[in-house]
Design goal:
alpha+beta, 6-stranded mixed sheet, 5 helices
Length: 133
């Protein structure tokens, strides 16, 4: 089973919102075959805690336009790794140091990368990086 079209659309909206807030290395992975709880993991990073929180605000604001609210939110106060759980899509916004340390892309490297259609080569770079690890 692969990620649903609605999950992919939600991931694309969230990715665009993250990109508008200058998120780095945005990537989405279809985890639906390996994880029963979600279809997609969206991962993005930023160089500071303030930027992580700004990205999270942008994503939440954008997805609220579609009447989507996170079921669960964790890590907001620290600003190092914020997890937004929207059910079918789980969004990880990490400080770039934490992203390197925890290497979620490496843990889920067997999962296909979702084309986020960001209009630049951000997702292509992240996809190539995930494949090279």
């Amino acid at each position: 089973m692969t990620a649903t079209e609605s999950s992919i659309a939600t991931a694309r909206h969230a990715a665009r919102a993250a990109a508008e807030k200058l998120a780095e290395d945005i990537i989405a992975m279809d985890v639906s075959e390996r994880l029963a709880l979600a279809d997609i993991f969206l991962i993005a990073s930023a160089p500071s805690e303030r930027q992580v929180n700004a990205i999270v605000d942008g994503i939440e604001e954008e997805l609220s336009k579609f009447e989507l609210k996170p079921i669960r939110r964790e890590g907001r106060s620290g600003g190092r790794w914020v997890l937004l759980d929207y059910g079918d899509i789980v969004i990880h916004v990490q400080h770039e140091e934490d992203r390197v340390f925890y290497a979620l892309e490496r843990l889920w490297k067997d999962c296909p990368v979702v084309d986020l259609q960001l209009g630049d080569d951000t997702s292509a770079k992240a996809s190539a990086a995930a494949e090279s690890e």
